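G., the chain you wanted modeled:
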Amino acid sequence: MVESQKDGGAGRHDPRTLAGMLAAAVDMEEQIGGGVYADYLKRENWPAEMEEDIFETIQGLLTTLLDETKKHKQIIAILVKEYGHDQKS
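Predicted structure as tokens:
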């Protein structure tokens, strides 16, 4: 289970609770969307010799992945609201 680096894993990502598991899922989606995909949307992170139409195709597909990641976060937010209280899983 992913542990929070901010709090040393205490509380928020306690894998023994449903709330902790859902918090870890939210963090994973944020890391994917905010880091990996977002970095690849920047032209300067790709080889200079790459043809512009290829980059635009890649950028379009990655934008789709970012949109899907946002949807995943929304789904997890619903789960957190409904089931994210501190009960043992």
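The mean pLDDT is 78.

Shout if anything looks off.
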